[in-house]
Amino acid sequence: MTVEQIIVLAIVQGVTEFLPISSSGHLILVPQIMHWQDQGLVVDVMTHIGTLFAILIYFWRDVLRLAGGALQLIKGQVTDEGKLAIYILLATIPAVAFGLFLTKFGFGDLERNVAVVAWNTIFYGVLMLIADMVGPQERTIKNMTLGSALIIGVAQALALITGTSRSGVTMTAGRFLGFTRPDAARFSFLLGIPAIAGAGVLTVGEALASGEPVTMDAVYCAILTFFAGLAAIAFLMALVKRVSFLPYVLYRMVLGGFLLVMVYG
What we know:
Elements: H1 3-16, H2 23-34, H3 41-58, H4 60-74, H5 80-104, H6 114-134, H7 146-158, H8 166-176, H9 181-209, H10 216-239, H11 246-264
């Protein structure tokens, strides 16, 4: 990989992972548009690990509270933070189950299909617009219940189909359930911690077992993605307090239309 490719991929992943516009879809499209060789799954996963550390650093207070709540549960004491930690872990199960289903029945090819990215980009963009229009902004993360967490977890599982956007579909589910934009985004990011960590460990482990190396290029991508991700989280959390999801919806419509022209034009 060239220095240019490493920088572009890192910035694209770092920004799009936290904006509801599908990071995986962009990672697939960049090499096609730039006429680069596909960077491969290991690089994709390493950039996701970079974004994982961005979440951990930006939300370090929440992470420490969740960890403290989990320790309290082990001691037999139930706190709000402990319940939220359990909700996040249980809400991760649908994504794990769906991922195993896709792998078992051979749907892995969908992950890098441009037509799938295009249609999902448009469909989930429309769904996001509807959720943001009809969903009341009444609930905060303190009002999270197990049922709501599981619904958002099921939505997260859909993001295994590229073009959906993990952050986008989970925030959409949160808005349908009546959570405020900032709290829908906050829970989306916290829910992403075990999902991104698990996918990263699994994929890197499979790569090493098959003899595919984790190169320094992939490590550089992860480091640069971390800094781009921090900036993107700060931008999104500031923006959702002031405006609706409409700018992201419009971007998804334009991007989806462009991709359809690429595929069918």
